[in-house]
């Protein structure tokens, strides 16, 4: 029998080399301030979400080579072009145009550590 979960994704982690820079970058781009938590073995900065079981965080780690790791898509408010501009202004890179699909609109980006991520509206 196949296991079919309620959500395909349960959690994500984004490795970063500079926690302060990463928190500032994602707070600016997503307009969602990652909250620093230091209760575990490593500091993490949690993304705010209504459903914490489908959320994630940034943590000190070794990112994959630029653009080669998995790509997660992060929710932003419309219009997506505003978020794309915040990526550029905050030290990241937009690597695709906005792409419309039936479920919404997304764009591929790289954060300052080279982590691949998508913006999704």
Write the layout of secondary structure elements.
Layout lengths: L11 E5 L2 H12 L4 E3 L6 E3 L9 E5 L11 E4 L4 H10 L3 E2 L4 E3 L2 E7 L5 E5 L1
Parallel strand pairs: 1-4, 5-9
Antiparallel strand pairs: 2-3, 3-4, 6-8, 7-8, 8-9
Helix pairs in contact: 1-2
What does this structure look like?
- With 121 residues, this protein is α+β, with helices and mostly antiparallel strands.
- The protein has one domain: Roll (2,3-Dihydroxybiphenyl 1,2-Dioxygenase, domain 1), CATH 3.10.180.
- Helices cover 18% and strands 31% of the residues.
- It contains two helices and nine strands; from the N terminus they run βαββββαββββ.
- The strands form two sheets. Strands 5, 6, 7, 8 and 9 form a five-stranded mixed β-sheet that branches. Strands 1-4-3-2 form a four-stranded mixed β-sheet, with helices on one face.
- Strand 2 and strand 3 form a beta hairpin.
- Helix 1 packs antiparallel against helix 2.
- The longest helix is centred in the N-terminal third of the chain and has 12 residues.
- The mean pLDDT is 91.
- This is VOC domain-containing protein.
- InterPro entries: Anthracycline_SecMetBiosynth (IPR052164), Glyas_Bleomycin-R_OHBP_Dase (IPR029068), Glyas_Fos-R_dOase_dom (IPR004360), VOC_core (IPR037523).
- It holds the Pfam family Glyoxalase.
């Amino acid at each position: 029998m196949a296991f079919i979960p309620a959500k395909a994704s349960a959690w994500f982690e984004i490795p970063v080399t500079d926690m302060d820079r990463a928190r500032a970058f994602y707070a600016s781009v997503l307009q969602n301030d990652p909250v620093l938590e230091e209760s575990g073995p490593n500091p993490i900065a949690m993304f705010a979400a209504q459903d914490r079981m489908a959320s994630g965080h940034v943590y000190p780690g070794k990112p994959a080579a630029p653009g080669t790791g998995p790509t997660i898509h992060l929710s932003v408010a419309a219009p997506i072009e505003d978020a794309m501009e915040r990526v550029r202004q905050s030290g990241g890179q937009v690597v695709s145009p906005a792409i419309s699909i039936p479920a919404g609109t997304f764009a591929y980006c790289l954060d300052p550590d080279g982590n691949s991520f998508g913006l999704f509206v």
